[in-house]
Design a protein that fits this description.
This protein is an alpha+beta fold. It has helices spanning 123-140, 147-163, 176-187, 195-202, 206-217, 221-239, 244-250, 256-267, 271-281, 284-293, and strands at residues 19-26, 33-35, 42-50, 52-55, 61-64, 68-72, 78-82, 88-96, 110-112, 115-119.
Length: 297
């Protein structure tokens, strides 16, 4: 797979119509996905068998295991493939445009702005999602008169079932101590927050808290805070005309230059480029939907 960082400049958006499918990747036929300009639809992936990897524009790697789901928003750079140490990766996918009421169920944790990720730990939920995906693919190959509507209904059900495993969703109940720390982060997102502060909020020692947070959330507390701040900044870049320095301050960064470095490390491009790309490619309805998704911090 090519280096995502060097692939970012001046790439068109990949057009993908509403479609679904199943794929089997192997070392002989890895079928790497490389869309530096992203796609014009949402792309949802469910990992069934084997292991894959997602590479962020900043060069970080996320390992995708069996039962993981990840979803790209439109225009988000896409780089994912069979894991180099794996012999196979079987997965289902769906490219879709969500209904306006779906966005409330797509507030999943973000690996970087625009890439949503969930790990389906509950086996019953995972089976439901797999069954729905198989039904989705079966109907897509049928000639039913209402095939398109049936497919959209199944995609909606997949998102609703996956939402039950969302640590930010109301239906998910992780360790109460982690819930307290997440609430503390949301309340103090734009202020200095240390692992000691979070451990105190959770009623744990800093070392025990950091270990538990990593185990449940899949990343360190400080990395989670950084990603939440970048997520906030990216939404502000899309929804306001404020200067970069003002957005940096609203996202919790006193130094605009440091903010730009953090943002580039997370997304692969500068805040200014991110705004320009969005203005160039997004249509007015998409911008309106993105504004609705901005949450109070």
């Amino acid at each position: 797979m090519d280096d995502p960082v060097t692939c970012m400049a001046s790439h068109p958006i990949f057009h993908i119509p509403f479609s679904v499918g199943y794929a089997e990747n192997c070392q002989e036929s890895p079928n790497d996905v490389q869309r530096p300009g992203g796609a014009d639809n949402w792309v949802l992936e469910l990992s069934l068998i084997g292991t894959a990897q997602v590479i962020t524009p900043g060069g970080d790697t996320l390992t995708i295991e069996e039962g993981d789901v990840f979803c790209y928003r439109p225009t988000t750079p896409q780089f994912y493939s069979l894991h180099p140490e794996a012999d196979r990766w079987h997965h289902c996918w769906a490219c879709f445009s969500p209904g306006s009421n779906w966005l409330q169920w797509l507030q999943w944790p973000e690996v970087f702005p625009g890439l949503l990720f969930l790990r389906l730990r509950d086996h019953s939920i995972r089976r439901q999602v797999e069954t729905l995906f198989h039904s989705l693919i079966e109907i897509s190959n049928s000639h039913y008169p209402h095939r398109q509507d049936l497919m959209l209904n199944l995609v909606e059900q997949i998102i609703l079932w996956a939402e039950m495993e969302n640590p930010r969703g109301s239906s998910y109940s992780p360790d109460l101590r982690i819930r307290k720390s997440l609430a503390f982060i949301d309340q103090h997102l734009t202020k200095p927050v240390s692992v000691q502060d979070l451990g105190l909020a959770a009623g744990l020692s800093p070392s025990r808290f950091a270990h538990l947070f990593q185990e449940i959330m899949g990343l360190s507390p400080l990395r989670y805070i950084e990603k939440r701040r970048v997520e906030l900044a990216s939404n502000l870049l899309l929804s306001t005309t404020e200067p970069i320095s003002a957005i940096a301050s609203r996202a919790g960064y006193d130094d605009p230059l440091y903010f730009s470095r953090v943002f580039r490390r997370a997304t692969g491009i500068s805040p200014r480029q991110y705004r320009q790309n969005a203005q160039r490619h997004r249509n007015p309805r998409e911008k309106m939907d993105l504004r609705k998704k901005i949450r109070d911090s």
